Amino acid sequence: MADQRKFIELRIRRQEAPDKPFYWEEFRIPYRPGMNVIACLMEIQRNPVNAEGKRTTPVVWDSNCLEEVCGACSMVINGKARQACSALVDNLTQPIVLEPLKSFPLVRDLMVDRSRMFEALKRVKAWIPIDGTHDLGPGPRQSPADQEWMYKLSECMTCGCCMEACPNYNEKTDFIGPAPISQVRLFNAHPTGKMHAHERLEALMGPGGIMECGSAQNCVRACPKGIPLTTSIAEIQRQLTVYAVKKMFMQ
After folding, report:
1. Nearest to 112, CA basis, from 74, 166, 158
2. Rounded to an integer, what distance in angstroms lies between the CA atom of residue 188 and that of residue 184?
3. Could you give the count of Cα atoms lying within 13 Å of 54 in the half-sphere of its Cβ?
4. Per the database record, which ranges form the 4Fe-4S ferredoxin-type domain (predicted)?
5. Is the alpha carbon torsion for 87, 90, 92, 96 positive or negative?
């Protein structure tokens, strides 16, 4: 049976700038089967007319890959932080309520600044250093078992959904957040990355480090990729304990 719906109703929280008051604006756009939230926002962009029939400004949001890889289109959809590109209209109750992530500085409307996450990755040195650009030959071998669980951690797209769900991560705290901690586990397990494991652990021992985690476990439920963030946090806590003990006896 063909879908009988003709319109999609959206209620969007809008704000022209961080220092401006927010307001709600409603839209009714033509329904097409298989639409996602991004398609709805693009329809509003094409014809910015609200539900009252008044001309308005296009809604501002962020997106890139449109296939749940880049993490740019994170927003709160019907009360849950998720990716707009993978949020299908047919699976959402209406009106579809769209809000920006609240754990990051607002830019405008549904767009936020996630720079804090990328700075956190720099802080924990979430990369594998190489010695120059010349050919170093094949890298160290890894077992299929290690490759399997490490690949899951590598799926992190820095979307910020876990940060949004974390009660300890907000503008009033320095907590680094679950995503960077999980990346520390990934790169500390890499045969080459192990050489700098102590530097990553040192970064997590200071203010805003892993001790700020309150073990709410909201992050693992919010992750759109199903990354075992709480397992990573527990493993890094173990590594930090071992490192701290060794460091104490080496002094």
Report:
1. 74
2. 6
3. 5
4. 147-175
5. positive
Domains in the chain, please, with CATH? 7-112 (3.10.20.30), 115-130+141-250 (1.10.1060.10)
Distance, in Å, from the CA atom of 53 to the CA atom of 131, rounded to the nearest integer, reads 61
Q: pLDDT tens for residues 177-225?
A: 999 999 999 999 999 899 999 999 999 998 999 999 999 999 999 999 9
* Buried residues in 32-51 as b, exposed as e (16+ CB within 10 A): eeebbbbbbbbbbeeeeeee
Among candidate residues 217, 155, 222, 213, the one with its CA nearest the CA of residue 186: 155
Confidence of residue 45 (pLDDT cuts 50, 70, 90): very high
What's the Cα-to-Cα distance from 70 to each of 41, 57, 85, 226, rounded to whole Å?
18, 26, 10, 15
**pTM for this prediction:** 0.91
pLDDT of 115 over the 90 cut: yes
pLDDT bin (cut points 50, 70, 90) of residue 163 is very high
